[in-house]
Design brief:
8-stranded antiparallel beta barrel, 47% strand, globular
Length: 154
């Protein structure tokens, strides 16, 4: 189960390159349920994600299952993907007992910065207080899901 909150970031933290980061490329074969392929570092990953029965404007809750792919399978599926692939750099920033995953988008989405924080429980997610540099909470806004951005041109 994945339980997370997502925020717009208007100004990036200083010295961002001091944090661990990696390049990510991902594309979508289906958006409901979500079938995603991702290149992350030297790994290739297939993900099945299905939104759970929990609904909230403040949390994203989904069943998520991942499995490794080999390079040839990734390329084969990538050619079948819908829309435009998402390319971004993901930074991992420690914050209290959590890790902020800050995505800096490239290509058509250049200038978009989103931060996600995952939680072990719905209650912990609902009680979360973000750092001052976080902007608007967009957890319940489908327009800020990677699947939506990959398959919609606006």
């Amino acid at each position: 189960m994945e339980i997370e909150k997502k925020y717009l970031i208007l100004d990036l933290p200083r010295d961002l390159d001091q944090y661990p980061h990696e390049e990510i490329e991902q594309a979508y074969l289906c958006t409901n349920p979500t079938l995603r392929i991702r290149k992350k570092g030297g790994r290739y990953i297939f993900t099945f994600k299905n939104r759970s029965g929990h609904t909230s404007d403040q949390l994203c809750v989904a069943e998520e299952i991942e499995t490794e792919l080999d390079f040839d399978t990734y390329v084969h599926l990538f050619e079948k993907a819908d829309g435009e692939p998402i390319r971004k750099t993901r930074y991992r920033i420690p914050y209290d007992n959590y890790t902020i995953e800050l995505d800096v988008f490239h290509g058509k989405r250049k200038g978009l910065y989103l931060a996600e924080v995952e939680f072990p429980s719905i209650e912990e997610g609902e009680a979360f207080s973000p750092p001052a540099w976080f902007g608007e909470d967009v957890s319940g806004d489908v327009r800020y899901t990677n699947a939506y951005m990959a398959t919609h041109s606006e």
